[in-house]
Amino acid sequence: MSFSAKPRMMNSQLSGIVPVILAVAFLVAILVFSGRAQGAEMIIRGPQVSKEFLLGRFDPSRHPDFVEVALTHGNKRGMFLQRETYKAFLSMAEEGKKNGVKLTVISATRTFGHQKGIWEAKWKKQPAKLNETDRAIGVLRFTSMPGTSRHHWGTDIDLNSLENDYFQKAEGQRLYGWLSARAKEFGFCQPYNPKGPERPYGYEEEKWHWSYLPLAKLYLSQYAKRISLQDLKGFAGSNTAVSLDLIERYVLGINNDCR
Fold first, then answer.
1. 158-173 tens-digit pLDDT
2. Does one domain contain both 238 and 153?
3. Distance separating alpha carbons of residues 230 and 92, to the nearest angstrom
4. Are residues 102 and 6 in the same domain?
5. Cα separation values, 169 from 163, 165, 173, 210, 251, Å
6. Do residues 171 and 217 make contact, with C-beta atoms less than 8 angstroms apart?
7. How far apart are CA 118 and CA 127, in angstroms?
8. Could you tell me the residue range of the domain that residue 1 belongs to?
9. Is the domain of 144 the same as that of 219?
């Protein structure tokens, strides 16, 4: 065999091998993606919800059960909800539109990191003279510690405004009146109603915050069973979670109708 014939043979052999290699790589990629997707689904669909999911330590933008809120129903890009939650919201929004009520999502799923940013920004604004417990209590009026927010689950939405003043005006009163009367038909509930004998502790009332119960009830139950105060760490003031009995008083301190 001449020297010049060897490269031709090698090229011929390689041309036969390359398609096989590419086909194998393609199959491996499919299997890996499928495995990841199935694993991700198990995070929120299995008999035991993963602690990572409950604590918000995942990326909703890459999760197969999450979809982005369209700008036609949200005030910004990059907001995600569980597919089932979003479908229920769209039905509710359509019914609201028929009744002259426009529902706009202004906050949806928040990761642990997102919530940490919100929490620590408010933590820094608390008076420096306060001890850590009092600083935490101040922030906790309207803001959850990272790892404890219902917004981690893709089941909860904030609608139209985060300002109580909005709900004192005609538009806000109409919106809240409609939601109070009709939201339950679509599976939604206001977890933070006014505090009183039936809800003596927890966050202040949030008329803008609505939770999709068919999923949220499952996650709340799993959270109570599987998450401990020791799991709440990695942010300013996390050491106050124990003394404040945070899970019992805040995570579980909700409207009884939302349990």
1. 999 999 999 999 999 9
2. yes
3. 38
4. no
5. 11, 7, 6, 19, 30
6. no
7. 17
8. 1-46
9. yes
Q: Which residues face 188 on adjacent strands?
A: 212
Per DSSP, 70 falls in state: P
Contact at 8 Å (CB) between 87 and 187?
Answer: no
Q: Give the pLDDT confidence of 117-150 residue by residue, as tens digits.
A: 999 999 999 999 999 999 999 999 999 999 999 9
For residue 207, give the nearest of 246, 174, 248, 237 by alpha carbon.
174
Residues 215 and 136 in one domain: yes
Which of 46, 67, 82 terminates a domain? The answer is 46
How much is the mean pLDDT over the chain? 89
pTM for this prediction: 0.84
Write the CA distances from 133 to 64, 90, 138, 234, 241, integer angstroms: 39, 40, 9, 16, 9
Domain co-membership, 78 together with 34: no
Residue 82 and residue 150 share a domain: yes
Are residues 170 and 242 part of one domain?
A: yes
| Element spanning 86, H or E | helix 83-98
Same-domain check for residues 18 and 112: no
